[in-house]
Design brief:
Layout lengths: L1 H15 L2 H23 L2 H15 L5 H10 L4 H26 L5 H18 L1 H6 L1 H9 L7 H10 L4 H32 L5 H7 L4
Helix pairs in contact: 2-5, 3-4, 3-5, 4-5, 4-10, 5-9, 5-10, 6-9, 8-9, 8-10, 9-10
Length: 212
């Protein structure tokens, strides 16, 4: 009975929270859980490397096609590397999808988002066939690095195309899973092949081949 009362109290508290508080806190809560899981499951050296790669991914010009192969070469399992970058797209996409209307008023971030919005609009204007695909257009933009991957740009594109918040988020999640796991599998296979056939310089092979 006491457990039921606690559950009802927790639900009542959540319902009383203003939407904006939930919208702002939820992405950071997901990020905190993400980092906590990494801290518990990775050796300290790999954990530090992963934090650096995650930060690099959020700062252009680095993308999935850059940070995922580097992480695998450093010895992080391909599936772990892929899932971690998926989570970054999920977290940034969730923040933008829920807070699109206020994100542009955040100091320093606002001007960057305004510039990214302009570039995304220009990109969609030059690739009108993507706009015609709607949901699958966002999936393609997020999954293929050439089209400008990432949760933030995917959210902006979704809003420009008039998609709902839920549909935009699902498109970002789908694109992130396809793109990250595709790049991770390909990178792991290529590195394994190069190491097996001795195609890498000795200095690089000494650092990489014992890790993949």
């Amino acid at each position: 009975m006491r457990r039921d009362e606690l559950q009802r109290s927790a639900l009542a508290l959540i319902e009383r929270l203003p939407y904006r508080a939930v919208a702002l806190l939820l992405p950071f809560l997901v990020l905190a859980v993400h980092i906590s899981v990494m801290a518990l499951t990775l050796p300290s050296q790999d954990f530090a490397a992963m934090l650096g790669l995650m930060t690099a991914y959020m700062l252009p010009p680095a993308g999935k096609e850059t940070v995922i192969p580097i992480g695998i070469a450093l010895g992080i399992p391909w599936w772990y590397m892929a899932l971690s970058i998926v989570m970054i797209d999920v977290e940034t996409g969730l923040f933008m999808a829920l807070n699109f209307d206020v994100a542009y008023r955040i100091p320093f971030l606002g001007p960057l988002l305004a510039d990214l919005t302009r570039k995304t609009k220009e990109f969609l204007d030059c690739h009108r066939w993507l706009a015609g695909l709607w949901f699958f257009g966002i999936v393609l933009m997020v999954s293929v690095p050439f089209f400008g991957s990432g949760g933030i740009r995917g959210s902006i594109a979704g809003k420009l195309l008039g998609m709902s918040t839920l549909l935009t988020f699902l498109a970002i999640l789908t694109g992130a899973l396809i793109g990250c796991f595709g790049i991770a599998l390909g990178s792991d296979a290529i590195l394994s092949y190069l190491c097996t056939n001795g195609a890498l310089p000795k200095e690089i092979a000494r650092l990489v081949c014992g890790r993949v």
